[in-house]
Amino acid sequence: xxxxxxxxxxxxxxKLVVLGDGTTGKTSLATRFAQETFGKQYKQTIGLDFFLKxxxxxxxxxxxxxxxDVGGQTIGGKMLDKYIYGAQGILLVYDITNGQSFxxxxxxxxxxxxxxxxxxxxxxxxLVGNKIDLEHMRTVKVDKHQRFCQENNFSSxxxxxxxxxxxxxxxxxxxxxILGIKLNKAELEQSQVQQKSLxxxxxxxxxxxxxxxxxx
Length: 216
Hints:
Membrane topology: Lipid-anchor
Subcellular location: Cell membrane; Cytoplasm, Cytoskeleton, Cilium basal body; Nucleus
Strand order of the largest sheet: 2-3-1-4-5-6
Distance between the termini: 49 Å
Order of helices and strands: HEHEEHEHHEHEHH
EC number: 3.6.5.2
Number of helices: 8
Organism: Falco tinnunculus (Common kestrel)
Strand content: 15-25%
Cofactor: Mg(2+)
């Protein structure tokens, strides 16, 4: 391949910043996506955590997602503007069982708007309701979520970082929307199947390791 051909089809990099209150599952969401793991013990993010994950979008486009996981206590901090600056995508994350975490997203979004008020290009903002595995404990109604999306032109997502449900799909859709790539139904279904297969393979590997330890 010539140098000119390489220049025509470079890998893309996108900066995604995950914002929201503490305990909403932001770090669990990022680690589930980037590492296919879920930590049962809550550990507060101090300042910033950083994750990298490469995905492939239609057209065989390689996209590296830089996921900036911002600690919930940083909303009044001096570094928050710097964390947000230059992001192509913002994930506003709340816990569907915690109404206050949803209400506080207004404050997080106000910071995003302030950082980008003079920018020529605005980041794509996604509203992410986490912990759908606790649907029976939901306090934030779906229509309230959808209304917030419509009022602010957010994309809408519901996920479970614990089970992995729709996590990869959420990040895939956000990346595709930023790059102006339309995902058809078959591609969305295929990504779900691939992730289920990957989770199954990961579980098998973990079981094999445990069996090996037991017999060693």
